[in-house]
Sequence to fold (364 residues):
Amino acid sequence: MEIQKIKLLNFRNYENVEISFDEHLNILYGKNGSGKTNLVEAIYVLALSRSFKQIQDKNLIKKGTNLTKIEGVIKNNYQNTYKVILTNEGKKVKIDNNKVTKISDYISKINIVLFNPNDLKMIKDTPSIRRKYLNIAISQMNVDYLKKLSYYNKLLKSRNAYLKQMYLNGNSLKSYLDVLTDKLVEIGLEIYEIRKEYVEKINTFLSSIYKKIATNGELIVHYHSDFTNKNKENLLKMYQKNLSKDISFGKTNLGIHHDDLNFLLNEMELKDYGSEGQQKNAVIAWKFSEIEMFKIEKKVTPILILDDLFSELDVEKIKNIFNFIKEDIQTFITTTEIEKVSYFLIPSTYKKIFIEDGKLEEVQ
Fold:
């Protein structure tokens, strides 16, 4: 899979630009704040219809304008044109100029694996952040997953609202809550099984890739869930046992919305005992494991984005990472230190793009 060219209108600091890309390696370089990350962010938005940053869509629209368009030509088995249009009122997505009514039907068409320095949150931050990363990864792989997750969240919202009503109004019918709980457990089990299988498959690649980057260490990810080793009957009993607590708190205290991932390096919690470098290497290893998953599960090689990856890595680690960048994967690298990347350039075609104040210049 590759993105052959992209057009941006009023995206971030880009007013109106169009540029084509190399099918193998694209190096985007320039000073901090020039627009390097904005360009790869546009590619990400084109694929997933949202930014990888914790921002609202309207913040992607260039100041002083009321609309942004991202259009890209993607080549997989066929060549298709994808478009994301953002306004203050909402977003529209199109494939070959045909409107796609459901975002869930659009996501998974363009496959992206991205590393950004903020991805260290995957290890350092809260369970909700880790679930977000897991959801994004699986939703690109499994078309139905996002629909199941959306349905679960609607049921959860309804159940929580009814719990609050039960607390305020003691004569509320428990039979309606039982219906919501039954459906919540049922769809929750489906999501649990998908997540469990995904993490198990990631683990088949994770440790060996980590060793190739960091040269040593056993890395594994544990998936923790209230649903682990339980069937529907067990879970319904747990929800019934927890009912008084749920009513008192006005929320559902059990479920896959509390799932978490734990990264263990040599059986030690990486979040608590790992160095910054070890945590970064672990996230990189996870990302390259995602690539292997795409190849096996979808028979597709995703687009790889490495945003400011090399700024704090030593020469050996950079060299080890470049060993994973094969010619069959289109790669985008952003950097302020072009010499760091050039030293390790793989012997294939590549394109260097200099970026300054939202202007793009191809460099020979």
Summary: DSSP finds twelve helices and 15 strands in the chain. Residues 4 and 158 are 44 Å apart (CA to CA).
